[in-house]
Amino acid sequence: MKTVTFRRVVVTGIGAVSNLGCSATKTWEAMKAGRSGITPLRTFPQNEDWSVRFAGEIHDFDPSHVVDGREQKRIDRVALFAMAAADEAVRDSGLDLRNAADPYRNGTIIGSGIGGVLTMEEGHTKLLQTGPRRVSPFVVPRLMVNAAPGNVSIQFNLKGPSTAVASACASSGHAMGIAMQSIQRGDCDVMVAGGSEAAITPLTLSAFASMKALSTRNDDPANASRPFDKDRDGFVLSEGAAIVVLEELEHAKRRGARIYAELVGFGATGDAYHIAAPDEQGSGAFKAMEVALKDAQVDKTEVGYINAHGTSTPLGDKAEVGAVKRLFGEHSYKLAMSSTKSMTGHALGAAGGIETIPTIMSIYEGVLAPTINLDNADEGFDLNFVPNVPQEARVNIALNNTFGFGGHNVSLVFKRFA
Amino acid sequence: MSEPLPESEIEAKVIEAIADQLGVAKADVARTSEFDAICDSLDKAELMMEFEDLFEISITDEAATRLKTVADAVEYIHRTLKNS
């Protein structure tokens, strides 16, 4: 029987593309400043029929430093986001992955809720307008949900495990959790992991609006994403990507790498309840956090910060706050929990990746990113949500929660490296 | 019936389309350039669509397979326009 020896996994690189800035550094600085990345919609024209006319779009994305013009035509925005974030993360780690002695020890897992839906919509329009013989041969390699890890593996010559995860808004969480397990098991030493999403399209926006999942605060986009506030009315659709370099501890130590934090726990559950609505008791979320803490072998009283899923929907926030209060009991009043979606909006499959930045930085830098737009906390929401301004704290253990349509719940546990 | 395009003009348009799609300089594309050497099969498929649009002709898959070089494409397009 194969003997599995668990190895330790640390974060040695971070990269991101978000509506707060096209790097992890800019994103984190903006979060500490409490800045909103939500603006009136620009990417496609809308008339009064559209009930939602704003989003968390990225306006200044230019992938030219990672992909030349010719290649850009062959790659959907969702994979370009991932490649730009991966480029930053790998450079940040100091690893020379392209020239690795054994590229089979390096891999990638990148989640996306929807994949290349922009390509799908454009391709379908072309099909209807010009017929089947004019459909581009690049449609499939652009739209497939695994295009991001496929392209990133080529970008860095990653010949180890390479796959995508699709669990809606929990995709990034699963990607990082499974990547951690791959390293723990010894399948590989380095994983380029995270999530990406570029789904602010006519079809997606209208469909989420039809579900009544989105905020309709058209007159005040920057204040629309207001997790935990009593006037919250839905989430704000956004886009972006975030990638971390996960590395086996000894591998990182040998090369004197900077270590942001250790990834020590992964808890994943399913609600088995409703395809889009959260279990109102938050029992799946409760269990994901409980399993993650058990996996991490840390006591719940050690948790200092939770980056909440906190999408700003009436039901979702209620379920999560309830789950945290039940799981942590008295300790829930000692820890802090903020939702950085108040600033970024909800980048679906990329959300957990982007939120890894404030989770890790709560430990590494000792600063808790705020929940902005929190003017009046909802009834019974009596935790420290880090309202509107950042707080300083010494955090040893931080959780990153992500929950997705389909009832997917993931909680990751990060620990101060010592 | 209008005069068909002279072959030199077709060549210039073909080379411009290839350079544009592949993101290379026109000087890097010659009559003797082989498609297999300058692009992959997906690029080639899209280029054939581009030529179809550009010259308002139809290039069957069978014909496309036989077009190995830029000169092959130019001559094929010239022939097709002359016969139409």
CATH topology of chain B: Non-ribosomal Peptide Synthetase Peptidyl Carrier Protein, Chain A
Radius of gyration of chain B (Å):
12 Å
Average pLDDT confidence of chain A is: 97
Task: Give, in order, the helices and strands of chain B.
Answer: HHHHH
What's the total number of strands of chain A?
14
Radius of gyration based on Cα positions of chain A: 20 Å
Which residue ranges of chain A are poorly predicted, with pLDDT under 50 across at least 5 consecutive positions? none
How many helical elements of chain B?
Answer: 5
Biggest sheet statistics of chain B: none
CATH superfamily caption of chain B: ACP-like
Distance between the terminal alpha carbons of chain B, to the nearest Å?
10 Å
In one word, what is the shape of chain B? globular
Along the chain, the helix and strand elements of chain A come as EHEEHHEHHHEHEHEHEHEHEHHEEEE
Biggest sheet of chain A: strands, sense, closure?
10 strands, mixed
Stretches of chain B where pLDDT is under 50 for at least 5 consecutive residues are none
Q: What structural category characterises the helix and strand content of chain A?
A: alpha/beta
Structural class of chain B: mainly alpha
Oligomer: heterodimer
**Total helical segments of chain A:** 13
β-strand percent of chain A reads: 15-25%
Q: Helix amount of chain A, in percent?
A: 25-40%
